[in-house]
Specification:
about 180 residues; mainly alpha; two-stranded antiparallel sheet; elongated
């Protein structure tokens, strides 16, 4: 069984926080990623729930209830045939419709701003050693569910950072010695 490298792209800040979490739990970053891949393949699914939990904000709940009322009764509330029609209704004729040139300039400025602000968003590359058969199997799993391997691993890292713990038990099954 040959080893292969899996390239992971994280922000420098996420990498630092993830390494801190791994150290706190007494495991190497490489082990945590390999454990995630093994758990995913053994369960044939991501081994944790993806999402932020139940919605509790009263304004969001009220808006969701209003949407449900609109679905149940199409005559409830307003509807628009276009975004411009809605903007005209909400803001009148005073809302500014940006020109294509303005939009292009805004996109250019946003890109430059993001490119210059590399203190928080600098991307680092981490290479993790993984059994080549395991890597291939994980790649095929990810293709089947419609996401790149890097996205799946980033979801795992983000989940760990959000909860400040690993979202599954990091134990390893060791075959019985004969």
């Amino acid at each position: 069984m040959a080893d292969d490298l899996v390239e992971i792209h994280l922000t420098a800040e996420d990498k630092q926080h993830f390494e801190t979490l791994c150290n706190k739990e007494g495991v190497a970053l490489e082990f945590a990623v390999n454990a995630f891949v093994c758990k995913t393949l053994s369960a044939n699914q991501i081994p944790f729930t993806i999402g932020g939990g139940p919605i509790t904000d009263p304004q969001v709940l009220e808006a969701m209830a209003e949407v449900e009322r609109m679905r149940a009764d199409p005559s409830y509330g307003k509807s628009y045939s276009s975004f411009a029609e809605m903007m005209d209704d909400v803001f009148g004729d005073d809302w500014a419709r940006p020109s294509e040139e303005d939009l292009a300039e805004e996109r250019r400025r946003a890109f430059l701003s993001d490119a210059l602000d590399d203190t928080q968003s600098s991307i680092v590359v981490i290479n993790v050693q993984m059994d080549s058969d395991l890597k291939q199997e994980f790649k095929e799993f990810c293709e089947d569910v419609g996401m790149p391997m890097s996205t799946a691993i980033n979801i795992f890292v983000r989940k760990c950072l959000r909860e400040n713990q690993f979202p599954f038990d990091l134990t390893v099954q060791i075959p019985d010695a004969q």
